[in-house]
Amino acid sequence: QVQLVESGGGSVQAGGSLRLSCAASGYLYSTDCQVWFRQAPGKEREGVAIVSRTGGDPYYADSVKGRFAIIQSATDNTVYLQMNSLEPEDTAMYYCAARRNFESRCPRDASSYNYWGQGTQVTVSS
Fold first, then answer.
1. How many beta carbons lie within 10 A of that of residue 5, not counting itself?
2. How far apart are alpha carbons 39 and 90 in whole angstroms?
3. Which long-range contacts (C-beta less than 8 Å, at least 24 apart) are formed by 28-32?
4. Which residues contact 83 (CB under 8 A, 6 or more apart)?
5. Rounded (5°) CA angle 47-56-70
6. Is the confidence at residue 104, as pLDDT, over 80?
7. Residue 32 near residue 51 (C-beta atoms within 8 A)
């Protein structure tokens, strides 16, 4: 069983930065997907930063391109979401998600992921 634990959320002012972390335990393999979603109240869950653990070109939501980056630890099963130039519209619960994967690319839709963390809240004030 794969377990995911997010941390690093908090409240910041617009223009600030946060780095979220997702620590994974269990049997994740090098080809698996370990990615980031977010969900604001009343809105659907949105893929934020998605890339295979093997690397390649990541997918970023249009609204975060140039501001967010997904980073994979070289030493353990941890992925980070570096969030810069935060905007109030970034306010959401951020979730780490994972799935077993044997393809070169990871899916963008939330329904494709069967492992989820508990979420970490990010609140950005004006």
1. 14
2. 10
3. 28/2, 28/53, 28/77, 28/98, 29/53, 29/100, 30/54, 31/101, 31/102, 32/98, 32/99, 32/100, 32/101
4. 17, 18, 19, 20, 64, 67, 68, 90, 122
5. 45
6. no
7. no
* The residue type at 119: G
Instruction: Report the C-alpha gap between 52 and 96 in whole angstroms.
Output: 13
Name the amino acid, one letter, at 37: F
What average pLDDT does the structure give for the chain?
92
Is-contact 34 98, C-beta < 8 A? Answer: yes
pLDDT in tens, 48-79: 999 887 777 899 999 999 999 999 887 888 99
Residue with tokens 């090098």: 30
Phi-psi region of 59 (alpha: psi -120 to 50; beta: other; left: phi over 0): beta
Exposed, middle or buried by CB within 10 Å (0-12, 13-18, 19+), for 62? exposed
Cβ pair 99, 113 in contact under 8 A: yes
Pairing of strands 18-25, 3-7: antiparallel
